[in-house]
Amino acid sequence: MPAEVRTLPLLTGRRIPILGQGTWGMGESAAKRAGEIAALRLGLDLGMTLIDTAEMYGEGGAEEVIGEAIAGRREEAFLVSKVYPHNATRQGAVEACERSLRRLGTDYLDVYLLHWRGAVPLAETLAAFQALRAAGKIRDCGVSNLDLDDLTEARDLPGGQAMVTNQVLYNLTHRGIEWDLLPWCQERGIVTMAYCPIDQPTGHTGRRSPLLTHGVAQEAARRHGATPAQIALAWLLQRDVVAIPKASQPKHVRENRRAAELRLAAEDLQELDEAFPPPRRKQPLAMR
Known about the structure:
globular, 38% helix, two-stranded antiparallel sheet, alpha/beta
């Protein structure tokens, strides 16, 4: 049995696993359902107890898959879900959360996020989150896909100080947040969660991530007896960033888990910086 997955402290004193399981694209195919459930259960067995989802994923289908996967094991799981921006009103977010809870088969979420900013005022969404916390339906709250200007605005609002995380697109090929957003969050104890941590494409484009084919990543992988995907994950984890890769195959679940045991050397980090340079100016927040 591998060692426990390392955790990071949240502002509220609770702790979040640094490596978890993403579910984007799950719950969309009946033929794949059994395999998706098995993959999530294997992840739990291996200590990847953080499971990230959203009401958007499969229009609730991913949450239903998770609900079946964690049946009888809720106490092991650290569940994160997200509310659609158009549902993020004072009453709408409460109702959306209750629907998510029913699909997940649980009475609380560990963290509930605004999926991205829409037309609903942030103050209204934060008020809903505070009501959900007071009712015990969520333990913590946060946001997703918010750049620094939106995040600073939200943090200055009532309830804004309770935000524990910002989930954004972040990987070796998308490093824009390092210019200002990431250090700002780190200075204030707001945990950054990285989705698409190995830059896998969405949909059925057939395109492979440049991280998996780049010579520098492949050479670092060879030195460590690992894969380029594991190198990409280890790079994030060493930065104290939570990574939530999706895996539907047992092989990939185990591969993701082993990334938490890797330790990249200074040589690796320097070569990766040269191959995938950090930003030299402010960049628009990358999103998918």
